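Listing S7. Sequence submitted for prediction.
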Amino acid sequence: MAEKIFPFNRKPVTDIGIDKTLENISEAEIKKAIDKVLKNEASARLKIFVETCMRCGMCTNSCHHYLAHNNDPTYAPAAKVKQTVWDMLNKNGNVSKDDIKKYARIAFSECNLCRRCVQFCPFGIDIAYLISLVRRICCLIGAVPQYIQDQALSHMQTTNMLWFRQDEWLDTVQWLEDELRAEIKNARIPLGKKNAEILYLAHGLEAKYMTGLLTNMAKIMNVAGVDWTMPDTDGWDYTNKAFYAQDSETMGMVVRRHYELAFKLNVKKIVMGECGHAFRTGVYEGVRFLGWKDSPIPYIHGVEFFYELIRYGKIKIAKKIEEPVTVQDPCNIVRYRGLGDMIRYIVKATCENFIDINPGYEYNYCCSAGGGMIDAGPPWKMARIEGGKIKAEQIKDTGAKIVIAPCHTCHKGIEDLNDYYKLGVHVKFLTDIITEVIEIPEEMKP
């Protein structure tokens, strides 16, 4: 019996990164890209996943996009694969430009690669992997949202996401160090220091627009007495936005640069801040692309770092936050890495009234901004806002006044949901919370 086909109805969206590209590419070039990915780059997982899916529908209700769009069957995880990968395979790669435009829309604006659906699939089919193949094909063609293309190109040229020059980086850190000395006597933000225990990498936004977060981390490092340094050359930004486009070559280059800096400075481990996808590239995706079995030196997420500082008494809490708080479990460090308990340990150590979100941990809903959806820019904003309706309802149900989101993408995504759905919450990072309650020893005060 033939499978029922549902109409694909969407509001028109203009994105020159996709639309202009498709004006200047042939269908022969499209087939070449599809064949390269599906026949040469894809692993055995492609064949296994496509042939074992029983269309049972167990993944359907796991997807926030499906639930937020009144159970529209075209938003179901298996349906997204059917409308993209299966369609390419059935047509042997002979697809039209309109097909590619549809594939790109599904892959970049209707799937966050969050892998919540994988938790419910009886066969463990990794739909995020299959959708990533669609993104890779679009990347080779050049049909990628313009805002993601720009950030990936910036990483390619400057190894940071914002076209930030090396001299600007050095000036920014020096300025922040001077500012921090108003709170911490003789505070230091070391650059290019050899043989330190930790090489700390920052988020690109923290060097240009959200400098308070870099100051927060420097404050924690100084109070805890950590032996640390940051790069004094290009390569300080861990964000690696090329991953969203599945530009594997640029992603691998950025990851290699991080490890090369660590080797050059002879540090014992790399610590990064509060970001999900960048941790995934630094520990999993980038390492595998480079052909390494494991990370050559430990690569530690900020959550793991803060957990150790608090658990072993390297920083002390002066007074806990009293307002009711809840947490967001970032997909790439909870579903991928299992850091949910560490997040909650930190929150309980710093906050009096913790209300856990339901469902939480690996079953928590995606913020709807991850997987590059927020980086796709203004043309796709309403796609993630609409898809985030379930996340907004989940937060509202907790009654919390503060949402702690230890990931830049989750943080901004929930801020937008807060504004649109009038949730009345404050969204904070763990560093915001820790620096608010940390005890500064008398001898360190100016």
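Caption to Listing S7: primary sequence and predicted structure tokens for the chain studied. The CA atoms of residues 111 and 371 lie 8 Å apart. The first helix runs from residue 16 to 23.
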